Amino acid sequence: MTTRVSLIFTILFSLIFLTSTSAQIGFKGGIGASDIIFKKEGQTPYLGYEVDDFIHNYPKLSYQFGAFAAFGLGEKFEFQPELLFVNAGLDYSTTYNYGKIIYRLNINYLQVPLLFKFKTKPEKTRHFALLAGPYTSFKLTAKKTMEVNEYEEKVDMNNVKNIDFGIVAGLGYEFDLPQGIIVIDFRITYGLINMMQPKEGYIPEYNGPEKIRANNMNIVLTVGYRFLNLWPEKTG
Asked: C-alpha distances in angstroms, 10 versus 5, 133, 161?
């Protein structure tokens, strides 16, 4: 835990240092839909048999916010590292004839995407941009909430791994202003590694499928503002 916190603060201060010397910075926030993609019948090893009767209807409403920087790489290309607080997880809540069952897994991450952006027509005051790159997420908290009639349970999900890694791809739209740029991003993030451990005591030969995997997936729309001259150079 101490190593993870130290790494997070190292990333934070590195981003602040870089943006204060050679880049433009901005802030953003947005909402989206989050889910965990399991292989066929793969959710039971991670969540337990209590989810067997749940119908997975919709993704979970999620949100994120944070800061980003922009380093120019020529006329049309930019390197854009980001530092984001990301809420993810899944929602198996459903309504039966006798009432409603709430079952949610909330995972909070500190996410660091490292994106490359291609601007289609940067000479225009309004233009589209394509962005893609890897991300690494560091788990902050992971909790399960379950409510059935009068029964309520909130527990830590200790089998969620501390680190997740994946890719980001999306489409942006930028509005140039005299002192900054309004940035709108629509992006998809998909985890490339198994982000959960099977529950303690799970034996594939007796409890379920041997090939199991859980991948984070998030679709999000964000709006941000990028400062053109946050730290003006001193003259004279």
From this structure: 9, 21, 20
pLDDT, one tens digit per residue, over 164-197 is 999 999 999 998 888 888 999 999 999 999 999 8
Is residue 153 in a domain? no
Residue 32: closest CA among 57, 59, 55: 59
List pLDDT tens digits, range 26-54.
999 999 999 999 876 678 888 887 777 77
Which residue from 190, 226, 16 is spatially nearest to 8, judged by alpha carbons?
16
What total number of domains does the chain contain?
Answer: 1
How far is 195 from 213, CA to CA, in rounded Å? Answer: 8
**Within a domain: 219:** yes
Instruction: Report yes or no on 82 lying in a domain.
Output: yes
Provide the mean pLDDT of the chain: 83
For 236, residues 6+ apart whose C-beta sits below 8 A from its C-beta are none
Domain range for residue 189? 2-90+109-141+163-227
CATH of the domain at 31: 2.40.160.20
Distance of CA 190 to the CA centre of its chain: 9
In a domain? residue 210? yes
- Find out whether 141 and 108 touch, Cβ atoms under 8 Å: yes
Other beta carbons within 10 angstroms of residue 48's beta carbon come to: 12
33, containing H or E segment: strand 24-38
pLDDT tens, 66-105? 999 988 887 889 899 999 999 999 998 887 766 788 899 9
